Amino acid sequence: MGSTKFRFRRAAAALSLSCLGAAPLLAETSPLSIHPEGYGLEVSGHTSRERAMGEAGMASINRRGPSLYNPSRTAWNEKTSFAATLETDVDWIRDDLTSNRTSSFVIPEIALNFQTKWPVNVGLHYRQRYQRDFSFTPLNPSNPEAIQSFATEGGLYEFAATVAYAPTSFLALSLGYNLMLGRERIIESAVFNQDPGAPDLYNGANLEGDTLSIRSSGGYPSVSATFRTRNFSLAASGRLDATLERTLERSITHVPSSQKSSEDRDLPWSAMVGGAYKLKANQTLVADFSYESWDNRESGLLNPAFRAGAGYEYQGSGGPYESLSRKVAYRGGLGFERLYLNETDLYFLTVGAGLPLGRRGNMLDIALKYGHRGTLENNLWTEDFLKLSVTLTGVSVWGKPIRKRR
């Protein structure tokens, strides 16, 4: 384990490369990504605007862009909007005995929010809910004549349709249905680099691609509400628990075997509340809290998860013909999260900016997150990571009634 100063310099260098786009990033995702009791690492459903504010801001009204955590606030959107988020990370697991670097680049969310001529907006969302991306190869194998490794890949993907309605100027409600689809693979392989007939080897044939494939499907409804005044707004959202039907199939070097089975796996209910307060017309404070009711009765390894985050946004006040520096939005935040496996804690800091693109209202939001998760107690793991996310939001006049010419 290197010194703190060295790791900081390495983080700064990696961040510079990510911003310049000079090379693909390498990442190490934690053992949470492969543990069979869970679904992997959860990917945030916030856009980069909320991520930069401590992954908070579900109650912050900006009148543009979709929102999967709080679709009700989109009932006040002024235009139809589209948003796509890209995410990549650079992680360091403090483990000198293994090699487990894998690339980590995902598109966690793509969403479209339609404005209609009524006070009703319709949203369509895609989100990568959980990500599995982990590989393991021992640097010092137990048998010098064999190299054994395993890898996991895939995740759980979410598709949602939402309807938001604002019966008054201060209250908005939404209802949605979320469909979950999962595709995961756990791959184990062994390669013998000497005589396959040696007596100290388990058998005389190379084992490659011993793979367990898992398919999942299920769904659940969700609701949200937002109350707003001139200076502050409050929001709440929740989703019911769901039972995912899972099909498991094992294969060796892409040859299916007769080992097929099915099972059910629960996805817990969750709730989220948030608030936003305007210090001034262009300055906002936000805070969110969320809870997931993971069940610990069966495995003894899971625990209820929760997250708390708070942040600040300074919105540039320059007019449409002012310089770019006067129109940029600056953001920052911090947060704490108790992950669902083995009471693993996560502490993080966030910074970011919003760059306007033209006079129509298009935006490019950038967020950078530094986090520390895990614990060294009881010989467990710990890691530091940097995560970069970028969201492009485009707006249009689709759905607005066309005025007749006189």
Report on the structure:
- The protein is mostly beta strands and 406 residues long.
- The chain has one domain: Beta Barrel (Porin), CATH 2.40.160.
- The protein has two helices and 18 strands.
- A 14-stranded antiparallel β-barrel has the order 2-4-5-6-7-8-9-12-13-14-15-16-17-18.
- A hairpin with a 6-residue loop joins β15 (329-338) and β16.
Task: Detail the topology: elements first, then pairings.
Blueprint: H1 4-20, E1 41-42, H2 48-52, E2 80-93, E3 98-99, E4 105-115, E5 120-138, E6 146-165, E7 171-192, E8 207-228, E9 232-239, E10 242-252, E11 255-267, E12 270-280, E13 283-292, E14 305-314, E15 329-338, E16 345-357, E17 362-374, E18 382-396
Antiparallel strand pairs: 1-5, 2-4, 2-18, 3-5, 4-5, 5-6, 6-7, 7-8, 8-9, 8-10, 9-12, 10-11, 12-13, 13-14, 14-15, 15-16, 16-17, 17-18
Short structural summary:
The chain is mostly beta strands and 406 residues long.
Determine and state the CATH class.
Answer: Mainly Beta
CATH superfamily: Outer membrane protein transport protein (OMPP1/FadL/TodX)
Q: Which value, in Å, is the CA radius of gyration? A: 23 Å
Sketch the major β-sheet: 14 strands, antiparallel, barrel
**What is the element string, with H for helices and E for strands?**
HEHEEEEEEEEEEEEEEEEE
**Secondary-structure class:** mainly beta
**What would the CATH topology be?**
Porin
What's the total count of β strands? 18
Low-confidence stretches: 1-27, 201-205, 401-406
Q: Let me know the average pLDDT.
A: 80
Helix run count: 2
The appropriate CATH architecture is Beta Barrel
The global form is: globular
State the helicity in percent bands: under 10%
As laid out across the biggest beta sheet, the strand order is 2-4-5-6-7-8-9-12-13-14-15-16-17-18
Distance between the termini: 75 Å
* Domain count: 1
What percentage of amino acids are in beta strands? over 45%
